[in-house]
Amino acid sequence: MDGQVNLDPWGASNVRDYSRLFSLFGIEPIDRIIDQIPRPNRYIRRRVDFGHRDLQRVLKAVVDGTPYAVMSGIKPTGVFHLGSRMTAEKMIYFQHLSPKATVFYSIADVEAYCDNGMSFARSEKVAIQNVADLLALGLDPKRAIVYKQSEATAVMDLAFVFSRGVTMNMMEAIYGNRPFGLYLSALVQAGDILLPQLKAFGGPKPVLVPVGADQDPHIRLSRDLARRYNKELGFVLPSAIYHKLFRSLTGESKMSKRDPMTLLTLADDPKMAHKKVMNSLTGGRDTIAEQKKLGGQPDCCVAYELYQYHFVDNDDRVGKVWRECVNGERVCGDCKAEIADEVSSHLKEHQRKTVSMIDRAVDLIKESREQMPDKP
Amino acid sequence: MDGQVNLDPWGASNVRDYSRLFSLFGIEPIDRIIDQIPRPNRYIRRRVDFGHRDLQRVLKAVVDGTPYAVMSGIKPTGVFHLGSRMTAEKMIYFQHLSPKATVFYSIADVEAYCDNGMSFARSEKVAIQNVADLLALGLDPKRAIVYKQSEATAVMDLAFVFSRGVTMNMMEAIYGNRPFGLYLSALVQAGDILLPQLKAFGGPKPVLVPVGADQDPHIRLSRDLARRYNKELGFVLPSAIYHKLFRSLTGESKMSKRDPMTLLTLADDPKMAHKKVMNSLTGGRDTIAEQKKLGGQPDCCVAYELYQYHFVDNDDRVGKVWRECVNGERVCGDCKAEIADEVSSHLKEHQRKTVSMIDRAVDLIKESREQMPDKP
Question: Is the dihedral of CA B294, B295, B297, B301 positive or negative?
């Protein structure tokens, strides 16, 4: 039994059994359409991406060679961590599936100001770093619109329009009883999600939003609004692909920017990152003797997640790590040292790339500004 | 007894005894500071402007020669009627009191879109006409910022910021239980009211908002927010001056754009306007004999309001009309014909001026756009 399942984009979500989200919220299992996905990336192959809504719509656009968008957004409150990197990689993966794909990326500087007291100038700086990360990860800037919410009048206007189409009951049903500001924030995010379908960007089209399972309320709201404003603005219901939520390095349920040991960021000093990995929680037994006898427990091991989710693309190798672990052939210390080395050299390489992308990031934000429409 | 007094910016307000607003809502009587007002216009002299909040702050800026702002805004859903003209004239009066005054005028095209389904393009057209009216009425464009809400990112951003500072309880206490969209609309209006105090416009300063009594909830919200964000953004509490609500020409409590006979607009064909005035409700008696015996009732006469509020600047003449009426020396038909002639020639002259102002109006909107900051 899983107890009550709570998906909360602003708080603690508790999901132990992801399959419950299928019956509870109508998320579809990724399994059923996995054969239709060309060159599935490791997240999909390993079911880190466990579910979706209307992903077929996007896959059909890939096959038909018709336009679609992939959208995401983030508060520019700090450097990318492994979670932001996962979303970024999925965005980029779906961008590269077709020359007809455009990425939309919203820098939520207004929210960063409201929630975190970050000035717009400071947000701009962090955002440039984030966008350089995206470019280093492979984002094609020629098919990307990167905009700041504070300047995106069309998004704000959409939020305003939507505010007339929602009722308090509807907001409470989706989000529970929350402060006014969070409801508005949700409407602005719906504006972000539906923006790519405005006339200025070629009109209605499939839009894919890669998110963590906890963000599903925003997806449901956007789909509801797309339905409500379909007549007026022609919206197609946006699609989503969901990844499992992952834990902090030290095993707490939430990572916290306040405790740097709980999360890896893409800007971590590689040596420090090595230390963090060595310090991470494993599914190991109390003694080596016990470990050899009973085997380790990779499914509750954060270090194993680094192999499975984040850093190893080769399925055979991940399978081998898993088998060796459960067979008691792996000792946690060695296992962590192996991946820690890769994490730190990966970060070194990524940081080198990122530095060279800063100018391009500044340009991309500037170019995008010129493409944004003034109004819906 | 007045029963319950209800001030509703979006619905029907019922005020019979304006002095009750002093004790109920803390509006101050204009009487107490009338001696401090230089060259009071007819609205103030005749107590059509019956109350205020912190008007002294603005009057002090006039005396000291320090900067202040006068702000108003309107949904561009149609041509100006006598109500919009009254607000416009007050704005212009306070602009001309000091060379340090700047007018801010918000074109609420987002609201017009949400509430009335008006496209932004159509709003733009109507707004140009409205701004030409303002110029014809004497607005000095060199000290005026006229902006469209749909393009005013700083206003939208302020609304977003404020959304985090309000609670549902606070909104309900001010506005009653209303749909989500109206609460947001109220926050955007608070953004409009506090915009002139942003750094881009020289920082905190007195701001006067001339409004009808029914708009007081918006003033209270803005003052509340100015207080809450005083530390962060340095806001001075905005001031307001309140006019009495007036009735439709035919005597219903609300004018309605759906029934053109109920209201005079500045674009009315002068002949048609003449007809409307002749058709308006008076405080006359059933027969001329009775009228001569008992006298008329100017205080419940819409035609008299045209003298008192709208078209006659000379106090002596208004006093004479009143006396002649109550003494039974005036017959309603003649009285209406007298003012109808003036209304129609006034409109003719105003329309001539307005036509010549259209280009200037287009320029003013364009120039203002360049002065608007991107963010708070």
Answer: positive
Q: How far is residue B34 CA from its own chain's centroid?
A: 19
Residue B341 lies in a domain: yes
Indicate if A334 and A219 belong to the same structural domain.
no
CB A188 within 8 A of CB A163: no
One domain for residues B91 and B190: yes
Domain count, chain A: 2
**Does B325 lie in the same domain as B277?**
yes
Chain B interface, mutation test: which of A75, A107, A180, most B Cβ atoms within 10 Å? Answer: A180
Distance from CA of A18 to the nearest CA of B (A): 33
Same domain for A237 and A283, yes or no, is: no
Distance from the Cα of A249 to chain B's closest Cα (Å) equals 32
Contact B163 A185 (CB under 8 A): yes
Structural domain of A269:
260-353
- Tokens coding B343: 């209304």
Q: Minimal Cα distance from B120: which residue of A? A: A375
**CATH classification of the domain holding A283:** 1.10.240.10
SS (H, E, C) B2-57: CCCCECCCCCCCECCCCCHHHHHHCCEEHHHHHHHCCCCCHHHHCCCEEEEECHHH
Is A150–B157 a contact, with Cβ atoms under 8 angstroms apart? yes
The contacts of residue A10 (CB under 8 Å, 6+ apart) are: A178, A182
Name the residue facing B374 among A114, A151, A164 (closest C-beta). A151
- Among chain B residues, CA nearest to A164: B181
CB distance B110–A157 less than 8 Å?
A: yes
Residue B25 lies in a domain: yes
3-class DSSP state for residue B211? strand
ipTM exceeds 0.85: no
Structural domain contains residue A5:
no
In a domain, B140, yes or no: yes
Q: Residues with Cβ < 8 Å from A91, sequence gap 6 or more?
A: A70, A71, A72, A103, A105, A134, A139, A210
d(CA B181, CA B186): 9
Residues from chain B that touch A110, judged by Cβ atoms under 8 A, are 157, 160-161
Nearest CB neighbour to A113, from listed B161, B184, B188: B161
A86 and A189 housed in the same domain: yes
Determine the residue of chain B that is closest to A156 in CA distance: B156
Is A161's CB within 8 Å of B115's CB?
Answer: no
Q: Are residues B215 and B315 in the same domain?
A: no
The answer to whether the Cβ–Cβ distance between B374 and A179 falls below 8 Å is no
Question: Which of B106, B177, B184 would best serve as a mutation to test chain A binding (most A beta carbons within 10 A)?
Answer: B184
- Tell which residue, A113, A188, A114, A119, has the closest CA to residue A153: A188
**B160–A184 C-beta distance less than 8 A:** yes
Q: Please give the model's pTM, rounded to 2 decimal places.
A: 0.87
CB contact under 8 A, B163 and A157: no
Same domain, A136 and A157: yes
The reply to whether A238 and A266 lie within a common domain is: no
Query: With an 8 Å Cβ cutoff, are A150 and B153 in contact?
Result: yes
What is the full per-residue pLDDT of chain A (376 aa) written as tens digits? 345 677 788 776 767 788 888 988 899 999 999 999 999 999 999 999 999 999 999 999 999 999 999 999 988 988 999 989 999 999 999 999 999 999 999 999 988 888 888 888 899 999 999 999 999 999 999 999 999 988 888 998 899 999 988 988 899 999 998 888 899 999 999 999 999 999 999 999 999 999 999 999 999 999 999 999 999 889 999 999 999 988 888 877 666 667 778 889 999 999 999 999 999 999 999 999 999 999 999 988 999 999 999 999 999 999 999 999 999 999 999 999 999 999 999 999 999 999 999 999 999 999 999 898 876 6
